[in-house]
Write a structure and sequence with these properties.
With 314 residues, the chain is α+β, with helices and mostly antiparallel strands. Helix content is 37%, strand content 18%. It has two domains: 9-106, no CATH class; 130-298, Glutaredoxin (3-Layer(aba) Sandwich). It has eight helices and eleven strands. The radius of gyration is 21 Å and the shape is globular. It starts with 8 loop residues before the first helix and ends in a 27-residue tail after the last helix.
Length: 314
């Protein structure tokens, strides 16, 4: 399995908050609006940004990781600060929000109060279900979902269209990012390229990378794994060099269109699957999307579940 996960420090803070019940308090004044940390003072936008950065660096980041302020502006009664997180694996932008009085720092974006479009909860029926699994190539929970999906792929074969999609984002400079660093982003692109040009070898490539490579060595590890599978590595390198931005733009668009919030996230015929994370659960979810279920859907797969509520949040 992939290991030595590099997690953006802001996300670590959010994870700690979730474990603690959805909110953490660093002062005596509890605020019911969500995950926040208390800072004090009535400040201008620049002063609020500087104080937020000082607070983040002293209290929220791991050793060897630093935050710096890139931009801060007023947005709907708050200050929206774009910060740069720097660690040895690379740099990544993140947005945080500071109250105008400088008292609160929000590490989750505020929720806009408006009528939310209701999404269907029942899976539509089709002759050939369309299945999309949104992951990051080195998210361990996404890798678990890929492993759980393998028996389903082997069972249903070409009766379903199954595709991995990759959770990426673009920062204010126009650079694409993946949560666990540049090598993960590069591996995302390589896997997309293999799917595009040698689709018959795609899943074998994904599973071999899961077994042999990590987010720290993917750029040097992937090529031998690809050669062992008979993949045209020069074609994949060319695809990565010339098509990366176009391919990543399409992934980002799909992430936004589907409202993807973390890895793994499974969609069947455009509707999010919220059942058990097990091979049997995935099979039942996918089989519910057939107009007429094939005989294979009667076969029982493993019901052993992975970490049901765990995931990697972008």
């Amino acid at each position: 399995m992939k290991k030595n996960l590099i997690v953006t420090s802001i996300i670590i803070v959010i994870a700690i908050a979730l474990i603690g019940g959805g909110v953490f308090y660093l002062s005596k004044n509890k605020n019911p609006l969500g995950m926040l940390a208390s800072i004090s003072g009535a400040l201008s936008s620049q002063e609020a940004g500087d104080k937020a950065i000082d607070f983040i660096n002293k209290n929220l980041l791991q050793e060897g990781v630093t935050a710096s302020l890139k931009e801060i502006k007023e947005e709907s009664g708050l200050y929206k600060a774009t910060i740069k997180i720097t660690q040895k694996e690379g740099e990544q932008d993140a947005d945080v929000y500071v109250s105008r009085d400088g008292k609160y720092l929000f590490v989750n974006p505020p929720i806009e109060i408006k009528e939310i479009e209701k999404k269907p909860t029942e899976t539509p029926k089709t002759e050939k279900p369309d299945v999309k699994l949104f992951v990051m190539s080195f998210c361990p929970y996404g890798n678990q979902a890929e492993d759980l999906l393998k028996p389903v792929l082997n069972l249903l074969k070409d009766k379903v269209d199954v595709k991995l999609n990759y959770i990426v984002s673009k920062d204010s400079s126009g650079k694409y990012n993946s949560l666990h660093g540049d090598q993960e982003l590069n591996q995302d692109v390589r896997e997309i390229c293999v799917f595009k040009y040698q689709k018959d070898k795609f899943w074998d490539f994904v599973y071999k990378i899961n077994e042999k490579c990590t987010s720290q060595n993917a750029d040097t590890c992937w090529e031998q794994q690809a050669k062992d599978l008979g993949i045209d590595t020069e074609k994949i390198k060319s695809c990565q060099q010339t098509e990366a931005d176009t391919l990543l733009a399409e992934e980002e668009k799909l992430v936004q269109e589907n409202g993807v919030s973390g890895s793994p996230q499974l969609f069947i015929n455009g509707v999010e699957y919220n059942g058990e994370r097990s091979s049997e659960g995935y099979k039942n979810g996918i089989c519910s999307g057939f107009t007429t279920s094939p005989q294979e859907c009667q076969q029982t797969l493993s019901t052993e579940a992975s970490s049901a509520a765990a995931g990697c949040a972008p």
